[in-house]
């Protein structure tokens, strides 16, 4: 058992590293990075030069150094450089500053500064990028990603996930702070979801093709099909704007001055009713259908007939003999639930403007906040991996046929 | 190409590229299609969507009515208490009809079956797959797959039940221990009333002190050897076909128990064997404690030849098929049932285990003094085990009698066919006999002998109505035109 867990944890490490590579590459492949987005207007107004942006990007670690790489690989020529017999650059000063000397020239020997002198908005880096072929550009990008990822990984292994570009704070602190808000919301929603969905699913299965079954199924399908933002907006429109029963955003009312903890708590609850209702209604459907299908399958099993033949009441048959067998596959859902518990509900939090981690992640993702997105997704990956491990262990607890060895 | 077409038409055929059809075939197909769309019932294998929907709607109405009746609460007992025709019987099936309301039409799985199970006997029910043997037994247990399967009104299944007597508060009446004199006879006082054994009332190991400061003295309830307290019982005859499920539950698993065909899947995989067996004791024996239930379970496991310590805490998947079937038999025995229904108990087991299980069943029958209803398609098993044999075909009984009569003097051509198709050691045959053809479509059965089209003794009379049951000897009955006495 212990051996199995250790083995799984080691394997998980590999998975997490793999996930982090993919996420890093994906976020760096976004067409507009953080600096581009932030200085877009200043650049068009001319208050910031392209050269400045290159410098800022370098500071954020977002720049692809086409010029340095290309010259280093010998794809772009440069006057005033010394070459040895094999055509390699001889680094006379033994430092990279040599790369800045001389003038960049293309294959036919024309200076790039001459070639692009009409296009003032381009930096030296951009000249080089335009000169490169598709393959060469890709190689430069990949090298840049690897260097960036390497730096991130080394820092991360030291426990430093960097500072969020957008929020300025240390990423770990932000996640630690906002996680609990999301966790509280998700936990309440999850408990409600289970309390409502599982009995409904059982009822639907035991009254198959009855009025109850059809009603529940239709409601579940509606829940599954409605998008969160739409349903959330609908609920907001009806209950906060039209009827005014609930506040429409945030976690607390700003008008509360020096509240006691009880009024503060009640105010928070009041704010959270709509988001939780939205979450619950939209997620009931899936679990309910799942329970219904499993229950139906179990109810047609031979051992259920045996239980009836023993003289068990219908209640005992369903809730004692069938229910635990139904739960076995539901346990697998644990794997999916744990990350969503801590990871927050991105869209719901966005719609209701809740300061949860999902909301922050959404904003960070839009603006290309590399450290935050990396840390957030890594956090989710770790939770997913742990969730899977936990659900596998739970399997052995629930189903005596499953034995964990090795 | 045109030439071919013209040629074909001249010959009365329809030209279709790659294939030549006779024109009549097309006409016939057209008729069939037309019939189907018109919703006609001429060919029961074809059913239109419209027709199917109509049937489903009708079925829903009927089954709902039946289900409602079964789920009623507080039904007056007089509705389902009857009398036995013959007091020596334990079960009497009287004109049992069990139908399945399927979307393709009504399947008459059991269609007017009447036979008795005498006390202490083994009745074998034989027939090929789908002839209604299992449905007959499930009807007795009220376990027919609802809501589609229903026992039809007018059917009667009488069962002689022993129920706990209840006082006016609906509580079971305990039997108290009576003082015995030196000869082991019960002692009576001068009024002739029995003198009861008394003891201080105990609560959690301490005597209960009454208002007057003295320990409360009460009568001691009689207990059996497992320490299970006894209650007064009385005999009642129930009509199972009319009984609400609520009452039936008290009979299932206590007085009528069932051993199923599939031992591999008939035990709940997530409970230990002990838990599943104890459950039956808790369900049916009032006053059973954990220790007494375990004692009873151990006793029964021993009876079926299992060392109880080895399996009590095991899960079903840790046992072999034969062991599981033994456990199922132990489960069936727990409450000393009057009738054990064994629904093909050996079909899923390999041959050596089959023999062991059959031996076990025979052994147990001697010990419990109950009856066995043995359902099988294996004539060899029936020959070994049964006192009486009922042969079923397509939902009806075609022949019944004592085992001797059926085996020495089979009358119905189907029974003869079954006998012939059984492999025998001392007979030399090139090829094992098999009855030609197959069971007719169970929907919309015609009103003539269902076996007619497969029968090798078919005569002119067979085109007439379904044959009546003919009494050949006091115990032997057959339903075949061949034995009708000339009038």
Structural description of this entry:
The complex is a heterodimer of chains A (406) and B (487). The model of chain A has no long low-confidence stretch (mean pLDDT 80). Chain A has helices at 2-28, 34-38, 40-45, 50-60, 66-73, 112-115, 124-131, 134-157, 171-206, 211-225, 228-242, 261-299, 302-310, 314-332, 334-343, 346-351, 357-367, 370-398; strands at residues 77-78, 104-105. Chain A has 406 residues and is mostly helical. The longest helix of chain A is centred in the last third of the chain and has 39 residues, at 261-299. Helices cover 69% and strands 1% of the residues of chain A. Chain A contains 18 helices and two strands. By secondary structure, chain B is an alpha+beta fold. Chain B has helices at 2-10, 23-37, 49-70, 133-141, 245-248, 273-284, 290-303, 308-311, 321-333, 351-368, 379-385, 403-408, 413-420; strands spanning 13-16, 19-22, 89-102, 105-118, 122-126, 149-151, 156-164, 198-200, 202-203, 206-207, 217-219, 233-239, 256-259, 339-343, 371-376, 388-393, 396-402, 470-471, 477-478. Chain B has an eight-stranded mixed beta sheet, sandwiched between helices. In chain B, strands 3, 4, 6, 7 and 12 form a five-stranded antiparallel beta sheet that branches. In chain B, a hairpin with a 2-residue loop joins strand 3 and strand 4 (105-118). In chain B, helix 6 packs across helix 7 (290-303) and helix 9 packs parallel to helix 10 (351-368).
Chart the SSEs and their pairings:
The complex is a heterodimer of chains A (406) and B (487).
Chain A: H1 2-28, H2 34-38, H3 40-45, H4 50-60, H5 66-73, E1 77-78, E2 104-105, H6 112-115, H7 124-131, H8 134-157, H9 171-206, H10 211-225, H11 228-242, H12 261-299, H13 302-310, H14 314-332, H15 334-343, H16 346-351, H17 357-367, H18 370-398
Antiparallel strand pairs in A: 1-2
Chain B: H1 2-10, E1 13-16, E2 19-22, H2 23-37, H3 49-70, E3 89-102, E4 105-118, E5 122-126, H4 133-141, E6 149-151, E7 156-164, E8 198-200, E9 202-203, E10 206-207, E11 217-219, E12 233-239, H5 245-248, E13 256-259, H6 273-284, H7 290-303, H8 308-311, H9 321-333, E14 339-343, H10 351-368, E15 371-376, H11 379-385, E16 388-393, E17 396-402, H12 403-408, H13 413-420, E18 470-471, E19 477-478
Parallel strand pairs in B: 5-15, 5-16, 13-14, 14-15
Antiparallel strand pairs in B: 1-2, 3-4, 3-6, 3-7, 7-12, 8-11, 9-10, 16-17, 17-19, 18-19
């Amino acid at each position: 058992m212990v051996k199995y867990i250790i083995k799984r944890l080691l394997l998980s490490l590999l998975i997490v590293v793999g996930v982090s590579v993919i996420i890093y590459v994906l976020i760096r492949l976004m067409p507009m990075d953080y600096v581009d987005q932030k200085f877009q207007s200043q650049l068009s107004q001319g208050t910031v030069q392209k050269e400045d942006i290159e410098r800022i990007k370098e500071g954020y670690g977002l720049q692809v150094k086409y010029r340095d790489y290309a010259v280093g690989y010998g794809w772009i020529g440069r006057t005033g450089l010394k070459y040895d017999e094999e055509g390699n650059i001889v680094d006379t000063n033994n430092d990279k500053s040599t790369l800045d000397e001389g003038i960049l020239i293309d294959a036919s020997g024309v200076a790039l500064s001459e070639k692009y002198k009409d296009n003032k908005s381009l930096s030296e880096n951009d000249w080089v990028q335009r000169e490169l072929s598709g393959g060469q550009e890709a190689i430069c990008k990949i090298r840049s990603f690897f260097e960036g990822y390497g730096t991130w990984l080394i820092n991360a292994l030291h426990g430093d996930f960097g500072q969020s570009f957008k929020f300025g704070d240390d990423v770990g602190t932000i996640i630690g702070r906002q996680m609990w808000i999301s966790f509280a919301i998700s936990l309440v929603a999850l408990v409600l979801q289970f309390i409502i969905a599982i009995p409904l699913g059982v009822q639907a299965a035991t009254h198959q093709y009855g009025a109850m079954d059809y009603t529940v199924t239709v409601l579940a399908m509606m829940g599954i099909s409605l998008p969160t933002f739409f349903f959330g907006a609908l609920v907001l429109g009806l209950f906060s704007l039209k009827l005014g029963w609930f506040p429409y955003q945030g976690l607390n009312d700003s008008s509360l001055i020096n509240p006691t903890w009880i009024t503060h708590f009640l105010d928070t609850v009041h704010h959270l009713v709509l988001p939780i209702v939205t979450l619950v209604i939209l997620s009931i459907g899936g679990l309910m259908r799942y329970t219904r299908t499993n229950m139906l399958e179990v109810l047609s099993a031979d051992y259920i007939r045996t239980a009836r033949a023993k003289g068990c009441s219908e209640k005992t048959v369903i809730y004692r003999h069938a229910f635990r067998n139904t739960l076995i596959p539901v346990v697998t859902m644990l794997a999916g639930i744990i990350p969503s518990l801590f990871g927050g509900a991105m869209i719901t939090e966005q719609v209701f403007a809740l300061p949860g981690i999902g909301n922050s992640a959404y904003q960070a993702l839009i603006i290309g906040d590399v450290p935050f997105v990396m840390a957030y997704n890594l956090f989710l990956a770790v939770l997913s991996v742990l969730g899977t491990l936990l659900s596998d262990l739970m399997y052995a607890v629930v189903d005596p046929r499953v034995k964990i060895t090795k | 190409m045109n030439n071919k077409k013209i040629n074909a038409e001249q010959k009365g055929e329809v030209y279709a590229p790659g294939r030549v059809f006779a024109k009549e075939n097309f006409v016939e197909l057209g008729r069939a299609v037309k019939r189907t769309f018109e919703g006609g019932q001429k060919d029961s294998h074809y059913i239109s969507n419209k027709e199917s929907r109509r049937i489903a709607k009708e079925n829903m109405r009927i089954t709902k009515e039946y289900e409602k009746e079964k789920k009623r609460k507080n039904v007056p007992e007089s509705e389902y208490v009857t009398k036995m025709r013959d007091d020596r019987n334990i079960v009497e099936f009287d004109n049992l009809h069990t139908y399945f309301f399927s979307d393709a039409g009504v399947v008459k799985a059991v269609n007017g079956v009447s036979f008795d199970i005498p006390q202490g006997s083994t009745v074998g029910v034989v027939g090929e797959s789908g002839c209604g043997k299992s449905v007959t037994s499930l009807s007795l247990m009220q376990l027919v797959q609802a809501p589609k399967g229903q026992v039809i009104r007018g059917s009667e299944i009488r069962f002689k039940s022993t129920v706990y007597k209840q006082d006016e508060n609906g509580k079971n009446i305990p039997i108290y221990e009576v003082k015995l004199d030196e000869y082991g006879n019960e002692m009576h006082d001068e009024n002739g009333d029995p003198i009861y054994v008394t003891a201080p009332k105990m609560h959690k190991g301490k005597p209960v002190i009454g208002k007057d400061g003295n320990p409360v003295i009460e009568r001691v309830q009689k207990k059996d050897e497992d320490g299970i307290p006894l209650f007064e019982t009385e005999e009642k005859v129930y009509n199972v076909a009319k009984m609400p499920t609520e009452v039936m539950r008290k009979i299932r698993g206590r007085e009528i128990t069932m051993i199923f065909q599939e031992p591999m899947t008939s035990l709940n995989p997530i409970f230990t064997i002990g838990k599943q067996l104890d459950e039956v004791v808790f369900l049916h024996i009032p006053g059973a404690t954990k220790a007494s239930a375990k004692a009873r379970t151990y006793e029964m496991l021993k009876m079926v030849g299992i060392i109880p310590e080895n399996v009590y805490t095991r899960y079903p998947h840790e046992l072999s098929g034969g062991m599981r079937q033994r456990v199922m038999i132990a489960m069936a025995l727990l409450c000393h049932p009057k009738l054990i229904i064994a629904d093909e108990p050996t079909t899923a087991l390999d041959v050596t285990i089959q023999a062991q299980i059959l031996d076990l069943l025979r052994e147990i029958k001697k010990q419990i003094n109950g009856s066995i209803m043995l359902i099988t398609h294996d004539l060899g098993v029936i020959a070994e085990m049964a006192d009486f044999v009922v042969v079923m075909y397509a939902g009806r009984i075609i022949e019944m009698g004592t085992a001797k009569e059926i085996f020495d003097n089979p009358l119905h051509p189907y029974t003869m066919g079954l006998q012939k198709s059984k492999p025998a050691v001392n007979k030399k045959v090139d090829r094992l006999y098999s009855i030609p053809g197959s069971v007719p479509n169970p929907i919309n059965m015609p009103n003539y002998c269902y076996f007619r089209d497969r029968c090798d003794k078919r005569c002119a009379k067979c085109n007439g109505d379904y044959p009546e049951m003919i009494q050949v000897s006091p115990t032997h009955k057959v339903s075949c035109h061949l034995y009708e006495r000339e009038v």
